[in-house]
Specification:
Length: 168
Amino acid sequence: MRITRSNERRFRDGSWAARFSTASGAVVMCMAFATAQSAADEPLTLNGHTNRVYGVAFSPDGNRLASASSDKTVRVWDAASGVESLSLKGHTHVVSSVAFSPDGKRLASTSFDKTVRVWDATSGVESLTLRGHSMGVYCVAFSPDGKRLVSASSDQTVRLWDATSGTE
């Protein structure tokens, strides 16, 4: 097992990735097939995706968890109960990663459909679709102040975006 400064763990048991919640200290493991399991006091299995789960992210307050799947959806869950609160549809290919904004009000997702999408994390309404990558987009992160997004793609580029307007 390897722990990095980003609080990510990689497991050799078939898990794809894991993230710590900085607020609660809980760990979520993405299993290879459509399951995310919380490593809090009692295991919690989140069922809903119909295919592999590729990425997870806790909201800044640790109360919600977002998951990215090859079923082309982003799902948002209550991190304590495991109840699904949102299923976000709009990507046309595998969703590879998710990230909450520092204030927890927005959620960004990336996809092999070459886009980054920004969603309202409460209502699920899509506010931006960022286009510019020529191949699948693998990861996204908000800047600490929430004003910018950065995305990385298999087209060998990293792009910086204005998180409000969507301009590069």
